[in-house]
UniProtKB/TrEMBL annotation:
EC number(s) from the headed UniProt entry: 3.1.1.31
Keywords: Hydrolase
InterPro entries: 6-phosphogluconolactonase_DevB (IPR005900), 6PGL (IPR039104), Glc/Gal-6P_isomerase (IPR006148), NagB/RpiA_transferase-like (IPR037171)
Family the UniProt entry places it in: Belongs to the glucosamine/galactosamine-6-phosphate isomerase family. 6-phosphogluconolactonase subfamily.
Entry function: Hydrolysis of 6-phosphogluconolactone to 6-phosphogluconate.
Protein name (record): 6-phosphogluconolactonase
Length: 260
């Protein structure tokens, strides 16, 4: 009998009155996901994108229940800059998160900034980081993260997957590079959709009225094909949107009350 493929579950949209409530609820959600994964497998694998996400995750640093020594952290995308550069996603996470908690340094996986002059080698090296963690332990063709955390740009991009870019159709590589990002800096590496969509949980975080038009297009008009709308987790993965009321002001998509 031929295998049947379940369609992806509908996204879950959770909207909060303001950013403080969003930050606190997001922290509680991530802490619960962390506990469930650690209880089940003894570790928590998480990948984080850049932008405003590290700041919005700040509530986690106040939660004494989080077992940071069991976290294994990767970056969904990264700007091709030294790790101490202001544009570095890793630096933002170190400054706002990792420097404030007791996560072992060798369980945080930044890019190798000795390879910044060779984008292909840099992306290959980061893909090998994922292979070391996942290839021998999961039977799937792609890694299965416990949680991937994403942001959304005003143009609908997520990670470093931009509207109209050829990487939107990449389906083989785990990590790819680009040198023509429409947002500076132009050189970046990024997870591809197959890696993002195989996560057990995917959470988008979007706040502010400047995201309202884009969020409406992504959720109410997914056929428009914006990069964020192409995030569709493979069954049984689940996609969540944590947004504030300002970002969700124009959205007709049904909201779900927050509960742990």
């Amino acid at each position: 009998m031929a295998a049947t493929h379940q369609p992806p579950a509908a996204p879950i949209l959770i909207s909060f009155k303001g950013k403080d409530e969003l930050v606190d609820s997001l922290a509680a959600f991530v802490a619960k996901a962390s506990k469930e994964s650690i209880d089940k497998r003894g570790k928590f694998t998480v990948a984080i994108s850049g932008g405003s996400l590290p700041k919005l995750l700040g509530g986690l640093t106040k939660d004494p229940s989080v077992k940071w020594n069991k976290w294994h952290v990767y970056y969904v995308d990264e700007r091709v800059v030294p790790l101490d550069h202001p544009d570095s996603n890793h630096k933002a996470c170190v400054d706002l998160l990792w420097s404030k908690v007791s996560i072992p340094e060798d369980q945080i996986h930044p890019i190798d900034d000795n390879l910044l002059d060779d984008l292909e080698e840099l992306s290959d090296a980061y893909e090998k980081e994922l292979i070391r963690e996942f290839a021998q332990k999961d039977s799937a063709r792609f890694p299965i993260f416990d949680l991937i955390l994403l942001g959304m740009g005003p143009d609908g991009h997520t990670a470093s997957l931009f509207p109209g870019h050829e990487l939107l159709s990449e389906c083989d590589r785990w990590v790819a590079y680009l040198e023509d990002s429409p947002k500076p800096p132009p050189k970046r590496i990024t997870f591809t959709y197959p890696v993002i969509n195989h996560a057990a949980r995917i959470v988008f975080v979007a706040a502010g009225g400047e995201k309202a038009d884009t969020l409406k297009t992504v959720l109410d008009e997914p056929e428009a094909g914006l990069p964020s709308a192409r995030v569709k987790p493979v069954f049984p993965g689940q996609l969540y949107w944590f947004v504030d009321d300002a970002a969700a002001a124009k959205v007709e998509f049904p909201r779900t009350p927050f509960k742990l």
